[in-house]
């Protein structure tokens, strides 16, 4: 353990660990040494800005007065979370992970408002799937979601060994919440799901900070998040996730000469790394890994994808959008999961409509995987039309 005066201007991870930060950008020396995302990175700062608005600081906006109806509502939401919602998260096919989310997290939430409000918010959103017009649930979802973000921001500002486990668990739920929220977003005209990508990266950055605090203590292996995260230790192996052979079946997406686009070494490497990750998940699917295991691999995409790729998605580069469609197609087995549902199909359909004609043939595989046969016929018809109009 290195002992230094607490940094007041360094990155959040260094301040939480009480070590000196040299404030190098985009990655300080401490985060570089540990191979983690650095909160000094401008992209991570943007991600956290997306997650926490200063409007949430006003306690008069969202605080809910005590009443019998509130107690009954919260009891209903907590019971639903324990019995149903907690069993739908990634890797919950493992009993220890399922017990962590359904038993240990609710108990921890009674001591940490950020986690409690996020649990109630997720439960309300889950119940709304079956009763979408329930006004009480609509209001509960909005209220507890805002309260969760406000309290989470405060918990992160005071991050220490006593609340690090709750911060990690709440960050994980916020990450799931961000993906679940894609279902209701407007996609005509199409714009990439940047809110989800930024929220996921922000949650991932805070998750890493919380893990670092726990690792510096003797309590890490007894923490709840250790039991949950330990089932996915393969995420620590970059050589496995991003090796070149993973993308063997996806090389056509790196083809040049399709359309002029900005291209440099950083951009090429970002696309290669992204495709390697997608190929890594595809290999797990071919090996018949449990769908909830695939879900864990898939959900880590937004955190682990190169920042340059995220920037290309934001710029609506056709190649980046097509690759994003390949990512969404990974979840074909997960459409019965309530927080995933029809989101995959909607996003792929929207991307297929948004990309220019020369890129539509590359959409055939993702739209076929997700079962959009009408869109496949449309692509085939477009290809035939282009072929008939091309000079001999």
Automatic annotation (TrEMBL):
Domain of life: Eukaryota
GO function terms (MF aspect): DNA-binding transcription factor activity, RNA polymerase II-specific; zinc ion binding
Entries under SUPFAM superfamilies matching the protein: Zn2/Cys6 DNA-binding domain (SSF57701)
InterPro entries from the UniProt entry: Fun_TF, Zn2-C6_fun-type_DNA-bd_sf, Zn2-C6_fungal_TF, Zn2Cys6_DnaBD
Record's keyword terms, sorted: Nucleus
Keyword set includes Nucleus: yes
Pfam families: Fungal_trans_2 (PF11951), Zn_clus (PF00172)
Coiled-coil features, chain-numbered ranges: none
PROSITE patterns: ZN2_CY6_FUNGAL_2
Zn(2)-C6 fungal-type domain boundaries: 10-40
PANTHER family associated with the record: STEROL REGULATORY ELEMENT-BINDING PROTEIN ECM22 (PTHR47657), ZN(2)-C6 FUNGAL-TYPE DOMAIN-CONTAINING PROTEIN (PTHR47657:SF14)
Name used for this protein in its record: Zn(2)-C6 fungal-type domain-containing protein
Species in which this protein is naturally found: Hyaloscypha hepaticicola
């Amino acid at each position: 353990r290195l002992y230094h005066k607490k940094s007041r201007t360094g990155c959040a991870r260094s301040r939480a660990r009480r070590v000196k930060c040299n404030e190098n950008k985009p990655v300080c020396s401490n985060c570089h040494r540990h191979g983690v995302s650095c909160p000094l990175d401008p992209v991570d700062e943007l991600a956290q800005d997306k997650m926490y608005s200063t409007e949430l600081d006003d306690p008069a906006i969202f605080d809910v007065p005590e009443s019998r109806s509130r107690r009954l509502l919260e009891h209903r939401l907590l019971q639903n979370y324990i019995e149903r919602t907690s069993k739908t998260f990634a890797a919950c096919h493992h009993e220890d992970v399922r017990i962590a989310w359904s038993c240990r997290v609710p108990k921890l939430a009674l001591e940490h408002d950020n986690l409690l409000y996020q649990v109630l918010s997720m439960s309300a959103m889950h119940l709304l799937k079956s009763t979408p017009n329930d006004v009480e649930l609509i209001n509960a979802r909005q209220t507890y979601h805002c309260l969760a973000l406000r309290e989470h921001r405060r918990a992160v500002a005071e991050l220490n060994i006593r609340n690090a486990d709750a911060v990690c668990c709440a960050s994980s739920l916020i990450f799931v919440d961000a993906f679940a929220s894609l279902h209701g977003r407007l996609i005509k005209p199409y714009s990439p799901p940047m809110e989800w990508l930024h929220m996921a990266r922000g949650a991932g950055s805070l998750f890493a900070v919380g893990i670092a605090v726990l690792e510096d203590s003797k309590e890490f292996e007894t923490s709840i998040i250790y039991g949950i995260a330990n089932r996915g230790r393969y995420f620590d192996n970059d050589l496995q996730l991003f090796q070149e052979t993973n993308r063997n079946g996806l090389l056509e997406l790196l083809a040049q000469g399709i359309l002029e686009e900005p291209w440099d070494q950083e951009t090429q490497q970002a696309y290669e790394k992204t495709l390697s990750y997608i190929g890594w998940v595809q290999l797990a699917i071919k090996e018949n890994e449990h769908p909830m295991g695939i879900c864990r691999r898939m959900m880590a995409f937004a955190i682990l994808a190169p920042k340059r790729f995220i920037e290309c998605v934001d710029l609506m580069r056709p190649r980046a959008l097509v690759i994003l469609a390949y990512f969404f197609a990974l979840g074909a087995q997960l459409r019965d999961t309530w927080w995933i549902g029809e989101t995959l199909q909607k996003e792929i359909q929207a991307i297929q409509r948004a990309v220019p004609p020369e890129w539509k043939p590359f959409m055939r595989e993702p739209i076929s995987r997700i079962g959009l046969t009408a869109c496949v016929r449309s692509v085939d018809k477009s290809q035939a039309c282009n072929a008939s109009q091309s000079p001999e």
